[in-house]
Structures are given as C-alpha cells and as structure tokens.
C-alpha cells in the first residue's frame, strides 16, 4: 500500500539510490562471470594449463552458484536484507584476492568457487530489497537492477582486460576491492528493509527506515503504510501454509515448472552464457581475428544497452512476444556463422589443390606431350608470377573471409537478439509464473537447474569445438535456437498465475 500523499522528490531519489546500491552487490560477482573470458588467454601460457584445467577454471563458479542461491533465502529471512548484501563481500573478496596474490592453480580453483558462491548469495537480495522499499511506480524497473549490474560487471572486467591485458592478477585485485567498497557503502548508507523490520517486530527501526526511504516525517502516513506492510506479510504467510512439495504435484504448479525449466535449458543450449565465459575464444571461433579485445568490450556494452531495451519491451509488448523476437533473430545469425565457418573450413583444407602453386602449374605443363621440358620450364617461370598476381590465393581468400564483415555482423546481431529476450525473460518469469504456495521451492529448483545447465555448457564448450568444429558448434546453437523459439510459441503462454 502506498502513502496517500504525493511522493516527495527526495523520497524518490533516496529509493532509487538505495535500490541501486543494493543491486550493486552483484557487480563484483558479475565481474567474476566475465573474468575467465580474457584471463584464460594469459593463464594458459603463464600457468601452462591443460584444456581440462581451463574448463574447470571457466565453469567452477557456475557449479557452486546454486549452493549460494539456496543459502540466500534462509539468510535473507533470518538476518535481513542488508546483512545478506554485506555478507556477499566476504566470500567474493576472499576469492578475488586468492587469485590476485601469489596465485597457483589450487588457489585459482578455490577463488572461483568462493566468487561463484558469492554470485549465488547476491542473486536475490538486491531484487527483494527493491521490491520491498520502492513505490509501485518505480518497482518494476528497479527490480531489474541486478541483471543490469551483472552485465555492467561483465563490461567492466572486459574493459579492465583490454587495459591490463596479461596482468589478470591486477584485475582480480580490483574485483576484490570493488566488492569491499560496495559493502562499505551499503553498510553506511543503505537502511534495512522496513518490510523485514516490521515483520520481525522492529517497529521503531521500521518507522525510521521508512521515513528515510519516503522522504517524509509524517507519522500518520508512515504508520498507515507500516500497518499495510504487516497485514500483507501476515496474509502471505497464511497463504503459504501447507505442504509445498504436495502443491508442486498439482497441474497449476508442475506445468509452469516444467515449461520454465525447459526454457532455461534452451537458453543455455543457444550458447548465451558460453559467449560470456569464453568471449575472446567465442569471437575468434566465429571468424573474427582483429581487435578481439575491443570487440569483447563492444559486445559487453551492447549487452548492457539491450538489457534496458528488452526490459522496457517486455513490459509493453509482453514477455512471450519479446522472447519470440529474440529467438527469430538469433537463429539466422547462428546459422550464418555456421555456414561462414564451414565455407572457411573448405577453403583451408590441406588436401585441396592450390592452383596458384608454381609446382602445380609446372607439373601440369610438363605432363603435356605437346611441350618439351625446356618450354614447360620457361612457361612455368613466366606464368607463375603472373598467375599469383591476378588470381588471389586460396589462403588469401580464407584470411579475407576471417576478417570480413559477415562474422562480425553475425556475432554482434547474435548478442543483441539473444540478450533482448532469451537472456532476460526466463529470469524475469521466476517471480511471477509460480503459484504462491510453492513459489519459494519452485524458484529454488529452477535457479539451481539453470546454473547446472550453465556449468555443463561452459565446461564442455572447448571439447565441442574440438570434436565438431566451430561450424558444428554454431550449427548446433542455431538449431537449438530454432527449436527453442518453436517451444516458446507453443508453450510460453504467460498469464496471471492462480493463487493455488
């Protein structure tokens, strides 16, 4: 329930700033998600890593993130939103500093595990805080703050990678410093959620917090909103009573559970998070060979901008329509990349004859019975340079194909379309597609499965690339994008969920 009086400008500003600060707790974990994209390039030579070790460094964070997700809920309810936001910095900063100072392979593994745990811990509290502390006119936009800060973290680490290049330890130290700074600012300036305070009996502190967030000291207005918060919380608790697992067996619960989990599976099978964890390798595999570091930064900036666009479009045009546009756009981009890589593979086949080779020309000329040995030698000597000038070599064509606009345009459009819908829509559906009585457990199951899918795709991407080639990988992603789009068209009918 909102106050009767018109919201004050100061109150709106405070709500926006506090919500953004709360969501910024996931900035450093977001940097962790993109860290392996540039660091592996230098780690593999400096630490002499095997392919298996590289894949563990890239994917370990995703393996333990579900544990952080499961821990986040109970900690939020028991110790409060502000405490959880600050707690994120403990494993996050320790993990970063383990990778920054005197790193060994074991320390890097432990660091990735701790930063992955922090990612899970930070996945919920920012959005919960924004939902509980802001007016309804601001709530829908500020609840997307966590997604924005994840993408901002990925962009920041790509920029730092471009600046510091092989000094990946400095970037890790900066990541740890960012986590501590955000925690300190949160401790000083962010008030606790009044909803949590009033629910746990801290009414005087809740009154003070709400006065700060609303920018008013009018006791009557504050007390009215606090009473509404308490009534809504009691209603939600009473509504959630019952056996959640038995509720999951009802069609109103298990159908959206299956649909959303399959949607998350297609999200991963289209390579969206592979492009985050292996940005440099992913861009290189697409056929782009020049200015890869700059292109990685460009893709990060595009991803951040498209998140804003996709969020607005999903609210005005609907999530289903936005997801369909995303899938329809992704599919041709990925198939075009697959076709371009396949053509390049044909051009650079080692067994293919090089018609510009003087040896090839000499062999064919000398095999003719119409020319003697002397004449064939002269013709070879005379024509070979001419042929090499007038006809571009096959190798030259391959190189030109690698730096052409086709793979660059395709990879940029792929990032735009994939971020527009398939990246953001599944996460935005988590809080609204499940019935209230089983929402907590259903969200936990879905988040855990999503990160496990993520781990599998990131872990085995290098092996896929080696076994079926880059054209095979992009073809697989394109086919999955097509099937995923058909799935969305048929099954993703987002309606108001029943109360159950």
From TrEMBL:
- Which residue ranges run through the membrane? 12-35, 55-76, 83-101, 107-129, 141-164, 170-190, 257-280, 292-309, 405-429, 441-462, 468-494
Give the source's domain of life in one word. Answer: Eukaryota
Q: Where in the cell is it found?
A: Membrane
- GO MF annotation list: transmembrane transporter activity
**Family matches, as InterPro entries:** MFS_dom (IPR020846), MFS_sugar_transport-like (IPR005828), MFS_trans_sf (IPR036259), MFS_Trehalose_Transporter (IPR050549), Sugar/inositol_transpt (IPR003663), Sugar_transporter_CS (IPR005829)
Q: Which GO terms describe its cellular component?
A: membrane
Instruction: Tell me which UniProt keywords the record has, alphabetically.
Output: Membrane, Transmembrane, Transmembrane helix
Q: Which residues form the Major facilitator superfamily (MFS) profile domain?
A: 18-496
- Pfam families reported in the protein's UniProt record: Sugar_tr (PF00083)
Q: How does it sit in the membrane?
A: Multi-pass membrane protein
Kindly report the protein's main subcellular placement as a broad class. membrane
Q: What is this protein called?
A: Facilitated trehalose transporter Tret1
Q: Which organism is it from?
A: Diaphorina citri
């Amino acid at each position: 329930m909102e106050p009767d009086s018109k919201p004050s400008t100061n109150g709106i500003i405070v709500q926006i700033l506090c919500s953004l600060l709360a969501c910024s707790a996931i900035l450093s974990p977001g940097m962790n998600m993109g860290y392996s994209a540039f660091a592996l390039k230098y780690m593999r030579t400096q630490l002499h890593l095997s392919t298996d070790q590289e894949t563990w460094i890239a994917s370990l964070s995703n393996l333990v993130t579900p544990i952080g997700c499961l821990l986040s809920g109970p900690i939020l309810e028991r110790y409060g939103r502000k405490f959880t936001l600050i707690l994120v910095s403990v494993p996050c900063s320790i993990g970063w500093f383990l990778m920054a100072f005197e790193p060994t392979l074991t320390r890097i593994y432990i660091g990735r595990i701790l930063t992955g745990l922090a990612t899970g811990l930070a996945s919920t509290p920012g959005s919960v805080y924004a939902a509980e502390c802001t007016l309804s006119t601001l709530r829908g936009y500020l609840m997307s703050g966590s997604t924005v800060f994840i993408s901002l973290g990925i962009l920041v680490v790509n920029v730092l990678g471009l600046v510091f290049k092989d000094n990946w330890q400095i970037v890790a130290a900066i990541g740890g410093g960012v986590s501590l700074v955000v925690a300190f600012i949160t401790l000083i300036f962010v008030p606790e959620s009044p909803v949590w305070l009033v629910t746990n009996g801290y009414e005087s502190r809740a009154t003070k917090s709400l006065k700060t967030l609303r920018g008013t000291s009018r006791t009557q207005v504050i007390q009215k909103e606090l009473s509404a918060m308490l009534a809504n919380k009691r209603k939600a608790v009473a509504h959630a009573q019952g056996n959640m697992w038995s509720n999951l067996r009802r069609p109103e619960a298990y159908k959206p559970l299956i649909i959303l989990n399959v949607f998350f599976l297609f999200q991963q099978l289209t390579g969206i998070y592979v492009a985050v964890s292996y940005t440099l390798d992913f861009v290189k595999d697409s056929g782009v060979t020049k200015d890869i570091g700059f292109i990685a930064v460009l893709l990060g900036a595009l991803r951040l901008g498209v998140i804003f666009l996709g969020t607005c479009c999903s609210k005005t045009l609907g999530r289903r329509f936005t997801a369909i546009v995303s899938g329809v756009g992704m599919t041709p981009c990925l198939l075009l990349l697959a076709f371009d890589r396949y053509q390049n593979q044909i051009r650079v086949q080692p067994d293919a004859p090089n018609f510009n080779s003087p040896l090839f020309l000499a062999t064919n000329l000398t095999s003719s019975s119409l020319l003697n040995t002397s004449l064939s030698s002269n013709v070879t000597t005379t024509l070979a340079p001419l042929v090499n000038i007038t006809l571009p070599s096959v190798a030259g064509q391959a190189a030109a194909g690698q730096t052409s606009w086709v793979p660059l345009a395709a990879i940029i459009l792929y990032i735009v379309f994939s971020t527009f819908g398939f990246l953001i829509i599944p996460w935005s559906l988590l809080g609204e597609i499940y019935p209230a009585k089983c929402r907590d457990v259903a969200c936990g199951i879905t988040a855990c499965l999503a990160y496990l899918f993520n781990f599998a795709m990131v872990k085995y991407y290098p092996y896929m690339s080696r076994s079926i080639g880059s054209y095979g990988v992009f073809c697989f992603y394109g086919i999955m994008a097509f099937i995923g789009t058909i799935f969305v068209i048929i099954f993703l009918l987002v309606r108001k969920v029943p109360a159950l």
